[in-house]
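User: Could you check the structure of this?
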Amino acid sequence: MLDWGEHKEAGVIAKTAKAEKVIALHAKFVDAKAAILADYSGLNVQQLAELRSQLREAAVELHVVKNTLARRAVEETGFVPLVDHFVGPVSVAFAQHDAVAMAKALTEYAKKEPKLNVRVGFVEGQVLSPGQITALAELPPREVLLGRMLSSMQSPLVGLVGVLQGVLRQLMYALQAIKEAKEQASQVGIVDRQD
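Assistant: Sure, the predicted structure tokens are below.
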């Protein structure tokens, strides 16, 4: 049986461990561009490991969190709107780069294993419902979107270059015509002087 001193020391150690967990989780929220909360109840250890592995391939981290610690961890971050969603068994997926890849990985796994219940997401300052997360997952990959954006930006530039080339061509034709007219005028002047 623990005496009072040992009991007090165990309590201090537990508080320190919780504080460290809050700090580590807070750092995850600060570094993340997006987060998705999911109810993982019903998944066994092997299924959670498989989910973590699939998410890792998409550069996403999955953490099972204690609600009270998670509520403290989101304080003073952009993820404060999620505070009311830390209820019941919850896991948090963090994406530092590509929210679309995270949404795809989670929704694909949830289709395969319906025990994973995607609850809410937070991307670009917006709280997303499960339906919006599914819509996000259906977007093309980031590289494809960037390629489309670049091609749409290039299209007006190519048109502008064509217009500018046309203007320069017309200017060159006009200068050439002026030169030829002056040459003809000077030749006519020379012929008139000889007569």
